[in-house]
Amino acid sequence: MVASSKPPQLSVVIPAHNGGEWIRLAVDSVLNNTFTDLELVIRDDGSSDGTREYLASLSDPRVRYVVAESNGGPWMNWTEVSRLARGTFVKVLCQDDLVFPGGLEHQVSVLSADSSVSMVASRHQVIDASGSVIMRSHGLNGLVGKMSGETAMIRSITSGANQFGEPASVTFRTEVLQASLPFDPKYPYLTDLDMYRKVLNGHNFVGIANVEAAFRVSTVSWSKRLEKTQSSEFIAWIDAYFAAPSTGLSNAARMQAKIMVRLRTFARRMVVSTVQRGLAIDD
After folding, report:
1. What is the mean pLDDT of residues 49-65?
2. Whether the predicted model's global pTM rises above the 0.85 cut
3. How far apart are alpha carbons 227 and 130 in whole angstroms?
4. 224-241 and 251-276 helices cross at what angle (nearest 10)?
5. CATH 3.90.550.10 correct for 10-216
6. Residue of 116 and 20 predicted with greater confidence
7. Cβ distance 15 to 92 under 8 Å?
8. Domain residue spans in the chain?
9. Which among 121, 85, 96, 82 has a CA at the least distance from the CA of 206?
10. Are 13 and 90 in contact (CB under 8 A)?
């Protein structure tokens, strides 16, 4: 489709690969949203499950659909679809996640009101593969309101978790995100948090208490076989980027962060147990 000559306020970009039924829900959550001054850019990276045919059938003029020449892997897909954004602001939406009515408009309004802010994030729901709610409100502990990017990052790290949430919860200032590319595959489970580190460097952050998105997980993604890898990777990432006191993280705070990472691993195990009993919980 031919893009409009006037850039939209917001670009929502989806890196697609074998999206199955979930990508339809993600697309609908954007196109049926209350905020309409947007483009939806989808880059398909070698799908073979009917995703490509579905995307080609979309007729909404706000949609741009790009077919990758080869399958370059998820991190390249995230990077390349982000480079296609034309809007003043950009949200990277994974193909199985959702945005809620009012959330896009709210996040754009916060970014529009303050040029010092490079990134905003809301709280989010956690849902399972079928869409049932696991957590009604998750994330942003200690991060609601405006603060420096350094303060926000240090608070997140010392909590032992990515308090900003997954990309569905986040909207960036496009020029800052694009200057911070590429997404780095070195730490696969922290690709989003590592990008937040770069985007927030020298800029401010605003955390929104509202629940404005949903992140989809399965108990497999939180299984014991991944726990050791995820926690070890988080600790290695902290040592790689926050070992020097000049980063704002003292040695004592760094030790606290590592302890909290391990405690969060245990807490995740408890969440999985709760999910298996079919219960929804609050953060």
Report:
1. 94
2. yes
3. 23
4. 160
5. yes
6. 116
7. yes
8. 10-216
9. 121
10. yes
